[in-house]
Amino acid sequence: MVALIVADSSVFIYGKVLEGEVVTVPGVEAELKDIRSRMRLQISGARIEAPSKDSLERARATARETGDFAVLSEVDLELLAKALELSAELATDDYALQNAALHLGIKVEPVAQPRIRKIVKRTQRCIGCGRPFEGEECPVCGTPAKRRKGVHK
Fold this sequence. Notes:
Elements: E1 4-7, H1 9-14, E2 21-24, H2 26-31, H3 35-44, E3 47-48, H4 53-66, H5 74-86, E4 89-91, H6 95-103, E5 108-109, E6 120-126, E7 145-151
Parallel strand pairs: 1-2, 1-4, 2-3, 4-5
Antiparallel strand pairs: 6-7
């Protein structure tokens, strides 16, 4: 059985050869600015497919739960959703994307950087009143957000 791999733009930028059937999302093609990266995408024979709305919503929900939503781009969320939809491996160097993928049980293939060491769940806490919240400032006292990392168990 041939492995399915959803590829981030770093795969084509660095020219990593992946063993298996490669799939990516339309946003990755748009991210590739130089001719070499675009040629690597074409030569790879990668299928370019958008994720379903259901898998995209699940990816967004997971990114919110892990605290990675604020740092993941729409393309990152689409990659996560496509890997989820296809039950595929995800090839990326983006640590926040790796973290969200591992929370979903998606196998991660690093491209040029080492894989993340710990799966974390990021939270925002008010440095004024200590309450957890989402957004840029505390809805209770108006203090700006402070990010904290906690190891996921």
